[in-house]
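Dear colleagues,

For the upcoming journal club I promised to circulate an example of a predicted protein-ligand complex. I picked one with beta-D-fructofuranose because it came up in last month's discussion. The inputs are reproduced below in full, followed by the predicted structure.
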Amino acid sequence: MKSNTEKFGKTPHQPSLWTRADALKVHADDPTTTQPLVSANFPVLSNEVFIWDTMPLRDMDGNITSVDGWSVIFTLTADRHPNDPQYIDENGNYDITRDWNDRHGRAKMYYWFSRTGKDWKLGGRVMAEGVSPTVREWAGTPILLNEQGEVDLYYTAVTPGATIVKVRGRVVTTEHGVSMVGFEKVKPLFEADGKMYQTEAQNPFWGFRDPWPFRDPNDGKLYMLFEGNVAGERGSHKVGKAEIGDVPPGYEDVGNSRFQTACVGIAVARDEDGDDWEMLPPLLTAVGVNDQTERPHFVFQDGKYYLFTISHTFTYADCVTGPDGVYGFVADSLFGPYVPLNGSGLVLGNPSSQPFQTYSHCVMPNGLVTSFIDSVPTDESGTQIRIGGTEAPTVEIKIKGQQTFVVAEYDYGYIPPMLDVTLK
Ligand code: FRU
């Protein structure tokens, strides 16, 4: 495979590397970077649907925004099938685990609203059936554009393929609730190019999704983060000195880590409306470390760029590991260089006693971190589990320089607004 300089050229930037040496510093169960235990007695948002990735309505600068006093979140959502023969096991019981595990194939975008930033009420589907061009409506970002209530929903249209798309609609409020209107014309924006970002043809397990547009607080331009893998045929990537980093004697063996090639992608808009985008080389690569850096997003604080991304234990490369959770990197300028927060990158991981309790963390600019409950053990051995598909307790972290600290825990799905917009 080509070196980074050969592949990405000399301009505009070189991707920063999350190295194997960095990942060796990841330690589960450090209380300052571990999500408090989630009780198996959690409440569920809905008995009709599972929800997972949660996308709070925000503005282009990243502020979580309510409209006319209503908080709004979008969620990836799928029906629960407690009575569907397909999900009834041989003993006549509902196999909720299988139903939950199958959810990605039927993910749809729904929205919820609330007066209190919690106790969410179901609004419904954002797009009518048949509007989205593919089967799966995968994660993205809803952006409130103006006081007229226009909303651009950026998301990922998956199966067939994976395309970053957007659809424009409008949020309408009354005394009694919120509705989403419009959202009728989906505009494809871009797909993986095979030169910087891996395509399905190069790797059937490729990842290309989760758009997160933002305005750079320094240059004022419109950009977008997304999840990708570094281009190249599966298995062709080299895990060399740079990817390994400064490891102690005995840690040079990289095993089969060439198969793990995650990166955080970035694109820049050529227009003000965000209809025309140019992909740039990744901001961060994790070749030889991890295969997924999902739902990348920023917090801009103290003049720095805090880049967060979620990842899994199962996507780590040989001989490196870490908990499911959110990882972070910090830089003084948009294009880096980025260094891992807390030395390792780990910001908020699941405790090892409940490795799947939460996932899909989103760090908001107020330091609150929202996520969903995946599964929580209900017995000592961890063999019995309760499936979530609902909002997890919100956690607060403090971000200080190159370190982060867990400092508080709040109610399930607590996502308070940072500013309120009165619609005209
Ligand atoms: C994270 C994620 C996203 C993707 C969605 C699919 O939980 O894997 O990257 O958009 O879930 O369900």
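Two points we might discuss: Helices lie at 4-8, 20-24, 96-101, 241-244. Residues 96-101 form the longest helix (6 residues).

See you all on Thursday,
B. R.
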